[in-house]
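Researcher: Checking consistency across runs. Here is LLM class flavin-dependent oxidoreductase again:
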Amino acid sequence: MLTNTDLTKSEFEIGIYTLGDIVPDPYTGKVVNARQRLQEIVESAKIAEEAGLDVFGVGEHHRLDFAVSATPVVLGAISQVTKKIKLTSATSVLSTMDPVRLFEDYATLDLLSNGRAEIIAGRGAFVESFPLFGYNLDDNAALFAENMDLFLKLSKNDRISWDGNFRTPIHNAEIAPRPVQEQIPIWVGVGGSLESAARAGRFGAGMAMAILDGDPSRFKPVADIYRKTATETGHSLQNLKIGVTGHGYLAKTSQQAKDEYYPYYLNYKKYVGQQLGIGSNMNEAEYEQMLTPGGALFVGSPEQIIEKILYQYEMFGHKRFVAQVDIGAIPFKKVAESIELLATKVAPVVRKETIR
């Protein structure tokens, strides 16, 4: 397998991520406990690395129907049973995090993993962290911008003085530990907002586009404004990174994938809709539309997933795709099979077709 350095230079990266949701199985009504869910997440990362994937991500929530709230702790555990796969948050809600603690956590992860730590930072679709950690939701955008600015300064300096609006000043403080990497890679998670894309460009950070519904082509202006803003603020296009994240499920045939995934995706839509207070109805025709090349779901045979990734690659010119394959209480055996197919049947073809 190529090293992470080689992948960064020449190859399209493919991986998986999880949010660790804990919901009743739509067939049996059974619910796995948080301990089992965490064990499955660690095992998924081992399978992903052994099969040849490049990236493994773990998301953050602060509620009982998700197993992961301490993302760097989970990634730290994974770092000890893997050797090469990159380890990223997916995402860290930066608006409600102290940037110094975030840097310390991921610098420590970087040391434990020998230089494999990354962060995807976002403002979060779920807002339970704001009252939990004592922040005002109305300050979300301002908090994110300030915390991102401080984090980037921490990455570049081992001693810093800094003053902002939402935390006490820092006076000539040592920032420790220092990571293996010169700087911890940080991406901004974007859900379709041009403002968020422009913000990522101004920071010169990577941009991870979460394409979860609708026509993916609506993200073309998002990619364009990201690159335009970045170059206008002095960042090199060569250093800019765009990734796509989405829901996925693979089986040997398209029919098998479509049929097996449908009840679990409906289950996911139902509980997320309840959590966010929005409607969750979806009929089979709408579901099938999402499986087409112009739809958002990466569900199908390996050949279909290759087609969809390359279709989007022509639109966005991105260099990373990361799929969430374990939503809605999908049995772990099926998750493992999806990971294997993504790694062994999809990734080699996509890497070959996207080398330029």
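Researcher: Does this match what you'd expect to see?
Model: One thing to look at in this run: The radius of gyration is 19 Å.
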